[in-house]
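About this split. The held-out portion is used to measure sequence recovery: a designer receives only the structure tokens and must propose an amino acid at every position. Recovery is the fraction of positions where the proposal matches the reference. Here is one held-out target exactly as it appears in the evaluation file.
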């Protein structure tokens, strides 16, 4: 919105600053951060008042988690509010990628909100049936895939870019939208599975958002893509503003989610943020690189899949408990140890993924 102030610029005044994506990204970061600080405590008080007993704690979870009973959930509303306000304020509203990512984020947030509300209302950890959540998620992702094809340059439509190799595109044709559905829904649910300890999911989400924001900015500039030998996707640079807003909103949320958490993000936040990251990967043609950047989320999801399939076939367990962060808790790691070590892993994987921009 503030970008339109450039219409009043003569090129040498303060309005001209809004021409620069980096300046607007900085504004989005601080706006989202301040939003989180201002509205965090009132939101927590409201959620605590409305929810009573807070988020239901799994009976089969680690014993240390029973002490968290009474902590309110749906804190993801704070992040979504922060990133939405920051993006709408500093992003170019004539950019289709901004609306695509925001639309997916809010839609998945709505699914998560309904699920959290069902859990709190019923007083158990079941919520909306998993099949219903998956179906709704796949519908949203299918629409997002169709929009992505429409707004991408013709030469990139329904194409899968292969990292490391120069100018390699695989034409996925009719299977592109199903592929996008798997990427976005898989991302949303992988982040959801990771959100099991105080602060565990939000920091890797911010790290991934920062990395994907840099990639979006790079592939949206023709001079950068020429130098890096990556595919040019005009307009994606604006997604750096969304990513900056997500980081600012995430830090504002982490202020209250740091152990011991005053609020959980719930499915409202985790599904929305995971869907957003998957969509940015699709838009920037970095779906395969996203599997590396979000490797921590991939491992968390795989640990659940492996555990379920192995148990059904043998009656035995591979991990002491899934997702895998609970396995390490069962092995005696303190919760802060698990969280910080997983943060380190997420940062390493993000740097590896970022390096693929240059390695050709």
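Reference sequence for scoring:
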């Amino acid at each position: 919105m503030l970008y339109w102030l450039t219409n009043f610029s003569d090129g040498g005044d303060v309005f001209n600053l809004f021409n620069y994506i980096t300046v607007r990204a900085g504004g989005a970061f601080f706006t989202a951060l301040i939003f989180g600080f201002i509205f965090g405590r009132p939101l927590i008080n409201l959620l605590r008042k409305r929810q009573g007993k807070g988020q239901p704690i799994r009976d089969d979870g680690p014993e240390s988690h029973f002490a968290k009973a009474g902590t309110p959930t749906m804190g993801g509303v704070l992040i979504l509010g922060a990133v939405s306000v920051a993006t709408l304020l500093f992003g170019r509203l004539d950019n289709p990628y901004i609306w695509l990512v925001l639309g997916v984020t809010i839609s998945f947030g709505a699914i998560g909100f309904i699920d959290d509300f069902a859990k709190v209302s019923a007083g158990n950890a079941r919520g909306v049936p998993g099949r219903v959540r998956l179906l709704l998620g796949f519908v949203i992702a299918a629409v997002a895939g169709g929009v992505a094809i429409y707004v991408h340059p013709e030469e990139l439509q329904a194409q899968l870019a292969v990292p490391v190799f120069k100018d390699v595109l695989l034409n996925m044709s009719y299977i592109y939208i199903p592929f996008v559905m798997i990427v976005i829904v898989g991302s949303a649910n992988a982040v959801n599975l990771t959100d099991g300890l105080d602060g565990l999911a939000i920091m890797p989400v911010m790290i991934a958002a920062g990395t994907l924001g840099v990639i979006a900015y790079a592939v949206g500039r023709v001079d950068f893509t020429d130098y890096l030998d990556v595919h040019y996707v005009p307009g994606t640079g604006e997604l750096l503003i969304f990513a900056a807003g997500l980081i600012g909103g995430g830090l504002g949320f982490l202020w209250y989610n740091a152990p011991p958490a005053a609020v959980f993000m719930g499915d409202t936040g985790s599904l929305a943020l995971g869907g957003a990251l998957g969509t940015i990967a699709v838009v920037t043609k970095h779906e395969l690189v996203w599997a590396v950047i979000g490797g921590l989320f991939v491992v968390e999801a795989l640990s659940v899949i492996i555990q379920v399939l192995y148990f059904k076939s043998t009656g035995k367990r591979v991990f002491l408990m899934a997702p895998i962060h609970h396995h390490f808790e069962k092995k005696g790691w303190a919760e802060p140890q698990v969280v910080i070590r997983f943060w380190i892993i997420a940062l390493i994987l993000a740097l590896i993924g970022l390096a693929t921009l240059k390695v050709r």
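Annotator remark: The first helix runs from residue 21 to 51.
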